[in-house]
Write a structure and sequence with these properties.
Number of domains: 3
EC number: 3.6.1.-
Structural class: alpha/beta
Protein name: Small ribosomal subunit biogenesis GTPase RsgA
Order of helices and strands: EEEEEEEEHEHEHEHEEHHHH
GO molecular function: GTP binding; GTPase activity; metal ion binding; rRNA binding
CATH class of the largest domain: Alpha Beta
Number of helices: 8
Radius of gyration: 20 Å
Family: Belongs to the TRAFAC class YlqF/YawG GTPase family. RsgA subfamily.
Helix content: 25-40%
Cofactor: Zn(2+)
Length: 296
């Protein structure tokens, strides 16, 4: 008999499937099967078949490897805190938009003076571009607006570098979850990531969250220079102003609207530098793909 369900946990050589009647079952898979949490599947005996995906969230690691993070999400929560590396937020927003997901920011650790300082910078910078939730997972302050947002039937994931408090945030949102939280050092407020199994959790009142292993890098996958300019946060004004040339890469071309925004201060200088770094990265990836095509 064929039964459809959703993969809610992935253990490398086996996955846990949640069926419509609430039953759960472990099914063995090959280690590199390509299945991920969030996949809709059809199970026949011990055979598992993946159904078409609506969305995929991928990332490229520092060594160039491509990893599929989760499937069939509709939102992506980008968690930032005092330990967050520069540029991670903009990378994640671009990746989310390119994957067809709605990005939102979670500024965590407001219970720390350093967290308040981060919020004072991040909230004004992004609140006109994406939804922003400033909170403390440790004390619970500011959690209710985020809960209300997720209750609207969203399936999402939290991404962020190690030490930003993703496990603490999930523990606060999902009662009795009790994810292991690593000790965070006082130096730079960084911790060791503790999640080793990807899993999907239902939230009280509605909504679902995927817990994924943390990572410090978020390299872009299969994004063109045109998509980078389209999805980069802060470039939304280009739709109204426009550049002289339709294929402008916003580096030093004449009549570039982005250059005007950067020069006037309307575009944050640090984030413009992040864009230029991402542009270099995307151009290098495109050139590498072209070279591979020529060798075939």
């Amino acid at each position: 008999m064929r039964v459809q369900g959703v993969i809610v946990s992935h253990y490398g050589i086996a996955v846990e499937v949640l069926f419509g009647d609430g039953a759960r079952r472990m099914v063995k898979v090959k280690r590199n099967s390509g299945h991920v949490v969030g996949d809709r599947v059809e199970v026949t005996g011990e055979v598992l078949a993946r159904l078409p995906r609506k969305t995929e969230l991928q990332r490229r690691d520092a060594r160039g490897g491509i990893h599929l993070v989760a499937a069939n999400l509709d939102v992506l929560g980008i968690v930032v805190a005092p330990s967050s590396p520069a540029g991670f937020t903009d990378r994640a927003i671009v990746a989310a938009r390119a994957a067809g997901l709605e990005p939102f920011l979670v500024v965590n650790k407001l219970d720390l003076p350093e967290g308040e300082e981060v919020a004072g910078t991040v909230v004004p910078l992004y609140r006109e571009l994406v939804l922003v939730f400033a909170l403390s997972a440790a004390t619970g302050s500011g959690l209710e607006p985020l809960r209300e947002f997720l209750r609207n039937g969203h399936r999402g994931a939290f991404v962020g570098s190690t030490g930003v408090g993703k496990s603490s945030l999930l523990n606060a949102l999902v009662p009795n979850l009790d994810l292991k939280v690593a000790e965070v050092s006082e130096h730079k407020y960084q911790g060791r990531h503790t999640t080793t199994v990807s899993s999907l959790h239902a939230l009280p009142g509605g909504g679902e969250l995927v817990d994924t292993p943390g990572f410090r890098d978020f390299g872009l996958v299969d994004i063109t220079c045109e998509q980078l300019a389209e999805f980069f946060p802060g470039f939304e004004a280009l739709e109204r102003q426009g550049c002289r040339f339709h294929n402008c890469r916003h580096r030093s071309e004449p009549g570039c609207a982005v250059s005007v925004l950067a020069a006037s201060g309307a575009l944050n200088a640090e984030r413009y530098r992040t864009y230029l770094e991402l542009l270099d990265e995307v151009e290098a990836a495109e050139e590498a793909a072209q070279r591979r095509g020529w060798k075939k």
